[in-house]
Amino acid sequence: MESKILWTEYALPEFGFPLFIIWITNRFFLESETIRWLLIIWTLLLVWFYRPQPDRVSWSAATREILSPCEGKIYKILKFPGGYWEIVVHLDLTDNHLQYCPLVAAKIIKQSNRRGKGDIERARTFFENSEGRVVVDQIVKEPRYGSWLPKFLVKTRIVNWAVGDINGGQSYGMIRFGSMISIYLPRRAKILVRKNQQLKPGILIGKF
C-alpha cells in the first residue's frame, strides 16, 4: 500500500479531526499557549507515526528460514504442550508499524479480523510455503480516545491489503498505535531469538 493511501484513508481522518477541533478552539474561543503546544505535539505525532517506511525489507532466499514480520521487542517466548511455539512482540509508538511477510515464496491462505472483549481488535494471517506454515496474530487494544472520536473516522486499527502469493519481506498490512504481535511457529521450528531482544523486520527468527 502506498504511503499516500495510508495518509488519505487513515492518518488525516483520525488525526485531522482533533487537529481541527484544537485549532477552532484556539482561534475563536480560547487563545492559549498550552493549546498551541498541543497542536504542535499532535502534528508531530501524526508526521512521525505515518513517516515513510519501505514496502519491502531485505530477505533471505532460503525457504526454510522464518523472518521477523515486524519491528519491536520480544515480550515472551512460549512453547505449548504440543510443541508449537509462540513469539510475542510488543510494538511501541516509536516502532515501524508496517507488517511484513515472514516466509519466502509464501501464500496467504487465510485471514480473519475480529473484535474481542475490552475493545480488543485482532487479525490473524496464515502464511504457507513449501516448508511449512507460520501464523501472525496482530492484536491491538483501542486507545482511550477511540471512544470519543466519531465512528466514521475510526475505521479499524488493523489494515491488511495483501492476498494470495507474497514474498518474504513484502509488506502486507499495518497495525496502528501501541500493539502486540504473536508469531506462531510449528513444533519442528528452531527458535533463533531470545526474550527482550529487539527485532527489525526481515531478520532471521527461526528455521523449519
What would you say this structure looks like, in words?
- It contains two helices and 14 strands, in the order H-H-E-E-E-E-E-E-E-E-E-E-E-E-E-E.
- It has helices at residues 3-29, 33-49; strands at 65-67, 72-79, 85-91, 98-100, 106-115, 120-128, 133-141, 158-160, 164-166, 171-175, 179-185, 190-191, 198-199, 204-207.
- 21% of the residues lie in helices and 36% in strands.
- It has an eight-stranded antiparallel beta sheet with strand order 9-5-6-7-11-3-2-13, with no helix packed on it.
- The longest helix has 27 residues, at 3-29.
- With 208 residues, it is an alpha+beta fold.
- Strand 2 and strand 3 form a beta hairpin.
- The two termini are 30 Å apart.
